[in-house]
Amino acid sequence: MTNGYFDLRRRFSYTGSLRQEFVGNIVMSGNRITGLPYAVGDDEPVTKAQLTDIGGYAVKQGKIKLRANGKASVRFGAAAGAVATGTVAHSTGYDFSTNNTFIYNPNGAGPVTVTFASAAGTSVSGSSPSTDISLGADDSFKIAVDEDAFGTPSYETIQLTLAGLNSGANIAAAMQAAIREIGGAYAAVTVAYTNVYTITSGTKGTGSKVLIGRADSGNLTEELKLGPDGGTETVGTGDMANAALTQMAEVIAKINTGQTLVVASESADHKLVLTTAATGLNASIVIGNGTTNTALGFTNTAAYYGPHGLGYDYNMADALYCVQATITATAHMATKNLSITNLATTGFDVECEGASAEDVFVTAIGTGASS
User: Fold this and answer.
1) Which H/E stretch holds residue 14?
2) How many beta carbons lie within 10 A of that of residue 34, not counting itself?
């Protein structure tokens, strides 16, 4: 100690000729300490970060445990949950009309399968409808599909050419062709005949609906027993309004329903994000072979893990810091060399040469961030 100063010098060496020295001073004047990244006033508590950061240089240390695969992520602050982010941004919507399962395994608890269910709206005739209208006079009915069918219906009038309509199959084909000519949502409508006529929206989900109404003249609904004349109309169901244009909010709501192990959210660039409620070593997400993987941008068997937290108040100023890592309580060190990778201001990764769940003591030395 000279003139109220402690001179603290910390040195470390790299293999070869590179050598760097960090120098910092603690200035003691009465009962006040300065020269730390944060000034500490009279009677103020001193934090762990302040006592280990001198002259702007930071020493952050702690004990971590590698996962069974010999790897671990370390953060200078608090431990965090595992985060899995899809690679496909939501635009107009995800197509879940046929591919509708998402599978993930949170924290090794076992696979969770999320099924995005959807069914189309239908209008089904009553039993024993006419199968021969070729010689009749009535040739028309009204139809409203999907958006047009909700609220006050906005009907389109369908007029058939009756020649040759002497079978259920022929009548169904003629109805389908005439309906599809309207375009838009009507272009995907299907009509089938078994023992009844079934008119089905091309949309799956809660926004799917088919309504049949009586024509102003030449009404066919009585002969075909459709709509108000004996038909049964069922609104579409599902976890979304339109399965072919599934919205991010609908995906998030479905994943978050009925479970608390992960939280689904949307990233700033509109991608699906899963974050575990658990943090640190016990936090993990492994993606399964769901049929929505391509749409959402996930890969089967991809694994994500939560980082350890060293518990410091702030990070490093840059990624130009040195990390010392030492395996503890292990007698046999063969195939257990350690590597430090992915250095960032917030932390780094530790990888062991062999897949082994080792205890590791880490010390990081560098320039501390100001906040």
Assistant:
1) none
2) 13
What is the length of the chain?
371
Place of tokens 């790897």: 71
List the beta strands (DSSP E) in 42-170: 53-54, 57-65, 71-75, 83-85, 101-106, 112-115, 118-124, 140-145, 156-159
Q: In which element (H, E) is residue 81 found?
A: none
| Tokens linked to 221 | 């609904």
Instruction: Identify the bridge partners of residue 8 per DSSP, sorted by sequence position.
Output: 24
183 torsion bin: left (phi>0), alpha (psi -120 to 50), beta (else):
left
Residue among 159, 280, 153, 144 at smallest CA distance from 203 = 144
CATH topology of domain 33-79+308-367: Immunoglobulin-like (2.60.40)
Q: What gap in Å lies between CA 140 and CA 159, rounded to an integer? A: 4
What would the CATH number be for the domain defined by 118-238? 2.60.40
- Give the whole-angstrom CA distance, residue 312 versus residue 289: 38
| Domain 83-117+242-305 annotated CATH 2.60.40 | yes
- Residue ranges of domains in the chain: 33-79+308-367, 83-117+242-305, 118-238
On whether the pTM is more than 0.70, the answer is yes
Count CB-CB contacts under 10 A for residue 213.
Answer: 18
Residue with tokens 């022929």: 170
Cβ atoms of 16 and 32 within 8 Å: the answer is no
Q: What is the pLDDT along the chain (371 residues), one digit of tens a residue?
A: 344 433 443 433 333 333 333 334 444 444 444 454 444 454 555 555 555 555 567 899 999 999 988 999 999 999 999 999 999 999 999 999 998 999 999 999 999 999 999 999 999 999 999 999 999 999 999 999 999 999 999 999 999 999 999 999 999 999 999 999 999 999 999 999 999 999 999 999 999 999 999 999 999 999 999 999 999 999 999 999 999 999 999 999 999 999 999 999 999 999 999 999 999 998 999 999 999 999 999 999 999 999 999 999 889 999 999 999 999 876 666 778 899 999 999 999 999 988 878 899 999 999 988 65
Q: Are 56 and 332 in contact (CB under 8 A)?
A: no
